[in-house]
Amino acid sequence: MTKPRIVKLSSKDPTDTALEGHLRKYYNLVRDMRGSFLEQSIWIDHILSELLAEYFCDNDKIRPLFFSEVIGGADFRFSSRITLLGSIMKAYHPQLAPKQKSLCDRLDKVRRFRNRLAHSHVKADPEDIARAQDDKFTLVFYEDGMSKEYIASAEDFRVRIKEATDLFIELLEIKELMLKEKGA
Question: By CB neighbour count within 10 A (0-12 exposed, 13-18 middle, 19+ buried), where does 18 fall?
């Protein structure tokens, strides 16, 4: 009995078949594009969490506990943090109220796409693997009782990552402003 050949997808192997070469390109494309956006969304969620923890807990000694048990707790999700930020902006920072809806909508867009990436699987049929040549891959997810597909492209990810970067910078500016005003 022959041993099955193990294909290491992360690095090139001179003994690759053509299919293995395409599969490696597909794997690396998916890893790079998904990973970049997921990393960006983690940063955004962390800055949002930090903002809320600092906003509600001035004490540096107990803030880590507040952060881990309340803001980062299992029952306080990314969507809850977005809602809370919106409520604070409307109620206590009227100069930020015009930005509030747009900011929260964009944060929610990042959250939804992050969830789509994290909870979907990559389709790996031969025609999908061939899409790697065009910098595209197919995600499969389930919604409304149906299996659905989303063909992701490198261009789509560039746009989404740019939007997330802009949002990250805006969130840092809002954090600074809100904390400064709170302390005044």
Answer: exposed
Q: Nearest-CA neighbor of 88 among 53, 43, 126?
A: 53
State the amino acid at position 180 in one-letter form: K
109 three-state secondary structure? helix
Domain of 169, in residue numbers: 18-114+157-183
152: β partners:
137
Q: Kindly report, residue by residue over 5-30, the tens digit of the pLDDT.
A: 445 555 566 666 777 777 888 888 99
Predicted TM-score (pTM) of the model is: 0.84
Would residue 91 count as lying in a domain? yes
Number of compact structural domains in the chain: 1
| List of residues 6+ apart from 116 with CB closer than 8 A | 139, 141, 150
Cβ-count burial 126-161 (b if 16+ within 10 Å, e if not): eebbebbeebbbbbeeeeeeeeeeeebeeebbeebb
Q: What is the pLDDT of residue 50?
A: 93
Domain assignment present for 24: yes
Question: What's the CA gap between 28 and 12, in Å, rounded?
Answer: 11
Tens digits of per-residue pLDDT, 113-130? 999 999 999 998 888 888
pLDDT in tens, 30-39: 999 999 999 9
Question: Is residue 129 situated within a structural domain?
Answer: no
> Is 30 inside a domain boundary?
yes
